[in-house]
Write a structure and sequence with these properties.
The complex is a heterodimer of chains A (317) and B (334). Chain A is an all-alpha fold. Chain A contains twelve helices and two strands. Chain A has two domains: 19-92, no CATH class; 96-278, Orthogonal Bundle (MetI-like fold). In chain A, a hairpin with a 2-residue loop joins β1 (83-86) and β2. The longest helix of chain A has 38 residues, at 225-262. Chain B has helices at 2-30, 71-106, 109-119, 127-141, 148-179, 182-189, 194-230, 263-270, 279-303, 309-312; strands spanning 40-42, 48-51, 238-245, 252-258. In chain B, α2 (71-106) crosses α5 (148-179), α6 packs across α7 (194-230) and α8 (263-270) packs antiparallel against α9. The longest helix of chain B is centred in the middle third of the chain and has 37 residues, at 194-230. Classes of the chains: A mainly alpha (317), B mainly alpha (334). At the A-B interface, α1, α2, α3, α6 and α7 of A face α3, α4, α7 and α9 of B.
Chain lengths: 317, 334
């Protein structure tokens, strides 16, 4: 089993890497980046002040596309020499990108962890109620889950300013200053929406588990609600939760982007936002930076879960 | 329960319909007769009460912009563009995904595996970034070289395309599930061709699911619009002007102006004024939030009409010994 698991993971790793390369170079497929960049350089050096005569269309530039995929792959293998273009000049990509990555991932991981802990707490508290009393918290979860992330982030920020104006108490730092970036509030904000999603998935899973015969049996034997929930249902819920975690992770990344822009944090996502249009390589590099560590974590967790739950050679396909 | 769900569909739809009707009737009937908005707000004695932008108040429920135009009216006016565009994009996504899903279903499993592996790459950055990287060259960075049609059609196609791979895989899974039903097997034994099975057996099974998916995709595209608005990209015509030059770096400070009162455009136009005049951003964002809520309420109501499929189809997973360990649960890192 170990061997087949390893082979499968390696296969998936390779495929996703190819996918990242294919996506990262897409701008070269649709636009004549080289000639456009030349024009942009001329504009920024004030050699050109009239662009009315220039016209271009969307193209399908397969040769450039394949060429760029190839050069990006080579650049990946010796990442140290990568540069990026910004306002007519070139800057080295590393270690700047790497530092920003660490900073943003600190926010992301702590936000997700906080969200997970809070969500497990909420879900358990909701589940020990009778099913009648669950409907109100479930409705709250549904409404919160339906609101877009930028609404929640902006409203929170506005509320903090409002409280500060009324009472002169600054609950949290809301923006980057010379003292550094805000820490507490972004983590808190980042934990809210993933937390709500996790709560929802946990509730759905728990309610499905509740109909299973083993729960009825356990209850008929006189085990307490808490015990059944925390010990017996929980281990089954982990699997489902883990399954949804990739979606939650993508969702949290989108939250991170909005958060960094609204809170004016100079982070990984804002760097990607500012520079990846002129330098599509940055998108590829960033995707790999996110993909490799989190893929490894996923694999390790999956390996742990499978060896624990699928003893005796249960197939996982 | 079913009744409650039906009410949810009704409430959500009524909200959307009223918004759209108000939007159209405002532009067609009321606006031509309207006087220009006033920048100064005078009370009965002709004394100056406030200078635009006005904060939210009784006569300006969501505040006003710098010209003194009420945000409430601007939002009503812009609703038809934002909602209309998201409906078009959702429709495009669903159509392409049904085609893609059926194609994937017909392809041999090894290619399916390949496709899934490749599209996994989309999970490691927000969809907004992919959209942004592909749209910005056309509408902002190299905006000098593309004409207006390209500037409107290409972004829509990109937003549609970003969603298609993931939804196609979902559709393909649903078709897989449908094909395990006995009645499809029977139809095939009785000599039904692929097209007949698709038309007579598959499409009635898929239709309600696709309806839910369509509504959900409207919500998804609204979220992408809101995000792109914050990244100063908005579809439906934008106009970039250089406002001033940064003292230190000599960098041109540009501002984009929305040509219609489209909501995403309103977010990006006013984001820099969020601190002094929060309602300028909160008004369009709230409009987005309410509309997305309404759309999700409809989707939730539609979904609930039928009991959950997974639980009912226990037979499908009979090869598994443990009922709680079905293969769905190991889809994650395959």
């Amino acid at each position: 089993m170990a061997w087949s698991f390893f082979r499968k993971s390696f296969f998936e790793f390779t495929l996703t890497s190819i996918g990242i390369l294919l996506i990262g170079s897409l701008p070269y497929l649709f636009f004549n980046i080289r000639s456009q960049m030349d024009v942009l350089l001329m504009i920024e050096r004030n050699e050109l002040d009239n662009t009315l005569f220039l016209h271009d269309t969307i193209v399908l530039n397969f040769q450039e596309y394949v060429g760029h995929i190839w050069s990006t792959a080579q650049l990946l293998l010796d990442g140290g020499s990568a540069v990026y273009y910004h306002q007519g000049r070139y800057f080295p990509l590393f270690p700047e990108l790497f530092d920003l990555f660490i900073k943003s991932m600190f926010y992301l991981v702590s936000g997700l962890a906080l969200g997970l802990v809070a969500a497990v707490g909420f879900a358990v508290v909701i589940m020990v109620q009778s099913s009648k009393r669950r409907s109100f918290p479930k409705m709250v979860v549904f409404v919160l889950e339906s609101l877009p992330d930028i609404f929640i982030i902006l409203v929170l920020q506005w509320l903090i300013v409002w409280v500060y104006k009324k009472t002169n108490i600054l609950l949290f730092d809301i923006t980057s200053t010379f003292d550094g970036d805000p820490v507490l509030l972004p983590i808190l904000v980042l934990s809210i929406l993933p937390g709500i999603y996790i709560t929802k998935y946990l509730l759905v899973t728990f309610e499905l588990e509740e109909e299973q015969p083993y729960v009825t049996l356990a209850r008929s034997k006189g085990l307490s609600r808490w015990r059944i929930l925390i010990i017996h249902m929980f281990r089954n819920a982990w699997l489902t939760l883990f399954n949804h975690f990739k979606n939650i992770f993508t969702f949290a990344l989108a939250n991170l982007l909005m958060l960094e822009i609204i809170f004016d944090i100079d982070g990984f996502m804002t760097f990607l936002y500012e520079h990846s249009v002129l330098n599509p390589e940055i998108l590829t590099f960033s995707l790999f930076l996110v993909f490799i560590p989190f893929f490894l974590v996923f694999i390790v967790i999956q390996w742990g879960l499978e060896s624990r739950f699928l003893k005796g050679g249960g197939s996982h396909d | 329960m079913t009744n409650a769900r039906r009410w949810m569909v009704v409430i959500g739809s009524v909200y959307l319909l009223i918004l759209l009707a108000a939007s159209f009737s405002y532009t067609l009937l009321i606006e031509p007769g309207q006087a220009d908005p006033k920048k100064l707000w005078l009370d009965e004695n002709g004394d100056l009460k406030a200078v635009a932008p006005f904060p939210p108040s009784f006569s300006y429920p969501l505040g006003s912009d710098a010209d003194g135009k009420s945000y409430f009216i601007k939002i009503i006016e812009g609703a038809k563009y934002t909602i209309g565009l998201s409906v078009i994009i959702a429709m495009g996504r669903v159509c392409f995904s049904v085609a893609g899903g059926y194609l994937l279903f017909r392809l041999p499993p090894s290619i399916k595996q390949w496709f899934k592996g490749l599209s996994n790459a989309l999970h490691y950055a927000p969809a907004t970034i992919f959209t942004y990287v592909l749209i910005t060259p056309v509408v902002l960075t190299f905006s000098w070289s593309y004409d207006l049609t390209t500037k409107i059609v290409f972004p829509c196609l990109v937003i549609i395309a970003v969603g298609v791979p993931v939804i196609s895989i979902y559709v393909q899974k649903e078709i897989d599930l449908a094909y395990r039903h006995e009645y499809i097997e029977s139809a095939r034994i009785m000599g039904a061709g692929k097209f007949r099975i698709f038309r007579k057996h598959l499409s009635p099974y898929l239709k309600p699911k696709l309806a839910v998916m369509f509504v959900q995709q409207i919500g998804q595209s609204l979220i992408i619009f809101a995000h792109l608005g914050l990244l100063s990209i908005f579809i439906g015509g934008s106009d970039t002007r250089v406002m001033e030059y940064d003292v230190k770096t000599g960098e041109a400070v540009t501002r984009s102006f929305s040509m219609s009162n489209e909501w995403a455009g309103m977010i990006s136009e006013n984001f820099q004024y969020f601190r002094p005049f929060p309602w300028m951003v909160l008004a369009p964002v709230t409009a987005f939030a309410l509309t997305i809520l309404a759309v999700n309420v409809i989707a939730y109501g539609l979904k609930g009409e039928r009991p959950a499929e997974r639980v009912k189809d226990q037979g499908i997973h009979e090869e598994q010994e443990n009922a709680s360990l079905d293969k769905e649960k190991f889809r994650m890192v395959k």
